[in-house]
Amino acid sequence: MILLSSIALNDLHRSILERDNLKSIHWSAGAALPFVGFSVAMFLFYSLVPILLKTNGSTMLNLSLLTSDMWAVIIRIFAYHEKVDWMYFLAFAAVSVGLIIYSGGDKEENPHAGVADEEAGSGSCNYGTMEGSLKTGETSNSFLERVGEKDNKLVQHDPYRTPIAAS
Fold first, then answer.
1. Which of 10, 27, 75, 136 is 20 to 30 A away from residue 101, measured at CA?
2. Is the pLDDT of residue 26 over 70?
3. Neighbouring C-alpha atoms within 13 Å toward the C-beta of 68
4. Is the Cβ–Cβ distance between 127 and 153 less than 8 Å?
């Protein structure tokens, strides 16, 4: 629904402010193809970024975006037949090695996983824990605060979850 309203707003904006420019364009396949290609590229980017963020996290996204300049280098070489400096290739290799090292590294396990109320049925609340890897973008419980001890048990406070009554 947001997509459709954005398209309508964009078309309204374009028809009001850029009417004269649109009339002056001689529309052909060569003129329309860049617009279509850009639209497809943006659709794929905005469709795949949430998947990348979910599976690999924001660090991997930022490292991956560093490789986007290589597309400009490829276009410069093959479309414009220009030479590029060797430093582009060195930088691309360094970023690629960084991506491989980061994605292949051990995933940090949450050190607080498994800490919970051990004595169920004592009338206290159990907030539980969430196991997951910090590297893959899963939720960690490192934001939990210790609010004190009650009956020699660790009580945790999580402002985003409601307490679950112990059975």
1. 75
2. yes
3. 8
4. no
- Quote the number of domains for the chain: 1
The answer to the question of residue 87 being in a domain is: yes
In a domain, 145, yes or no: no
CA distance 22 to 18: 6
Residue 130 neighbours by CB distance under 10 Å: 15
pLDDT digits (tens, 9 = 90+) for 100-109: 998 887 666 5
Whole-prediction pTM: 0.49
Q: Is residue 142 domain-resident? A: no
Of the candidates 70, 67, 64, 43, the one whose C-alpha atom is nearest the C-alpha of residue 52 is 64
Distance, in Å, from the CA atom of 37 to the CA atom of 17, rounded to the nearest integer, reads: 23
151: left (phi over 0), alpha (psi -120 to 50) or beta: left
- Cβ–Cβ < 8 Å for 144, 156: yes
Q: Which two tokens stand for residue 147?
A: 């609010």
d(CA 6, CA 132): 36
Domain of 82? Answer: 30-102
Is 124 within 8 Å of 118 (Cβ atoms)?
Answer: no
